[in-house]
Amino acid sequence: MAHRPSPCPATSLWRLAAGYLLALCASLPAAAAQALPFENSMAQRSLACTACHGAQGRAAADGYYPRLAGKPAAYLYNQLLNFRDGRRHYGLMTQLLDPLTDAYLMDIAQYFSALELPYPPPPAASAAASASTLAQGQRLVTQGDPARQVPACVQCHGQRMTGMQPNVPGLLGLPRDYVNAQLGAWKAGKRRAHAPDCMAQVIERLSLDDINAAATWLAHQPVPADSKPAPLALAPAGTPVCGSAPAPTTGAAR
């Protein structure tokens, strides 16, 4: 899910998209254009999502729009609600989701959550990934900082950092810039969750250097072969109860 100013007015974007599609259709032979199939399926309806988030929700090539495939359904559902209801801010997402019902948002979340797709390998170490930065990030992610009452990231996001059912996302397989942007949004009060907002409380105790170090180290870690979120039963004792929107158990396409 993205958080940055809208690159252009929504009306201009849709006009641009419509023009592109018309030009594409005009370039196809008439017989081929007539043969294009239509399926009334979530896979086809989700093309509105994958236009930005990459084929099958694997993440966009620009590294900004994150992966949707395989994330916990309740997490995806909560973020769709947050965009629609103003707790996260990105104009195009809000306009896309505004007319959709809770049940339809759950359909979208369950569809992407059920996709089991491999992750690409992590990027090679960059100049920004100094040894000291990586060490600082590893300490914060795996051990936290008890002196500042900063819990380890793995306490909530799972020891393998692949997330925790039902609504905690994984931290691996995400670009450094995306993680930096989201943690920075919490730091600036531009991203929120239902109370108690545990992330806001943690980020308040971190410096910008801490945020960059954690994001840098996470971005350079490989995703395990089994990238599924851990079951809630494996959550360690003392894991805080954080706020999230109540999620219905089933969806119904609208």
Question: What layout of secondary structure does this protein have?
Answer:
Layout: H1 10-27, H2 30-35, H3 42-45, H4 47-53, H5 73-85, H6 91-97, H7 102-113, H8 131-142, H9 153-157, H10 176-187, H11 198-204, H12 208-219
Low-pLDDT residue spans:
1-33
From the alpha-carbon coordinates, what is the Rg to the nearest angstrom? 19 Å
Oligomer: single chain
The level of helicity is 40-55%
- Secondary-structure element string: HHHHHHHHHHHH
What is the tally of helical segments? Answer: 12
The secondary-structure class comes to mainly alpha
DSSP strand count:
0
- CATH class designation of the domain at 131-234: Mainly Alpha
Percent of sequence in beta strands: under 5%
Shape: globular
How far apart, in Å, are the first and last alpha carbons?
22 Å
Query: What is the architecture of the domain at 131-234 at the second tier of CATH?
Result: Orthogonal Bundle
- CATH topology-level fold name of the domain at 131-234: Cytochrome Bc1 Complex, Chain D, domain 2
Mean pLDDT: 82
The profile of the biggest β sheet is: none
CATH level 4 superfamily of the domain at 131-234: Cytochrome c-like domain
Notable traits:
mainly alpha, disordered N terminus
Give a brief rundown of this model.
This protein has 254 residues and is mainly alpha-helical.
